């Protein structure tokens, strides 16, 4: 083993989990970026959700043959995205863990800067960077900030951190780096302690915030590959105005949205029940969550949210 390899091995191990399904070209692009991280002591865990396209396995085998840090498993049949996310976490061994979408890209310094921040700030449970959105042709959309509520760290309590997540949490918070013990306790994935009924990200974030604080740095480090319609909806969620797809007054849309918001609230309440806080604090958080989901449901139905200013990216 060379001196540089010994030095890398002495650094904390970072596990990067990639749940994937039937997107070989995008998976290869993602693996290319991840295996070239400046931080070398990583393990890459891929869980293929029973993809019918054989090229997915070919891409996985290609990277496993040239990089011993790459590991994989294949589901015997299609499982829910939630179960596939859990699968890569269960296979991980690192002190730190992060999920990576199979169609996204992270900057080459992403892992290194996250680890550096953890080592200098033991109060942190989660670190990430702002995200920018782009189309499949690599045309970047205009930037907007999602994480400005998570810029500062301090001596927040679990109750205060949970309140911030309920009010300001957003989907891309999932795609950052966690201390693994914020996600797994007593060898059990914290997510599995709730009976999730929705695809909402808040229950995971709430359970993780018991371990420490969340930090979103101003620099763009994550690049999300999405259709224009998804980008426009994300902009609306964060900056307000008229919804790009208009109001949802049709009975089918109305009831589908009502069901999602109700199930999301049930999942959040279940996660709140597991937090190590007082009964009064749990009740306060549930009321806050009910207010957020009710308000968001109303905005979705009428197709309008109060406008908020955009924040320029930080270089």
From TrEMBL:
Domain of life per record: Bacteria
Molecular function, one GO term: hexosyltransferase activity
Cited Pfam families: Glycos_transf_2
Segments forming domain Glycosyltransferase 2-like: 15-133
InterPro entries reported for this sequence: Glyco_trans_2-like, Nucleotide-diphossugar_trans
PANTHER family reported for this sequence: GLYCOSYLTRANSFERASE, UDP-GLCNAC:BETAGAL BETA-1,3-N-ACETYLGLUCOSAMINYLTRANSFERASE-LIKE PROTEIN 1
Protein name: Glycosyltransferase family A protein
Originating organism: Candidatus Devosia phytovorans
UniProt lineage: Bacteria, Pseudomonadati, Pseudomonadota, Alphaproteobacteria, Hyphomicrobiales
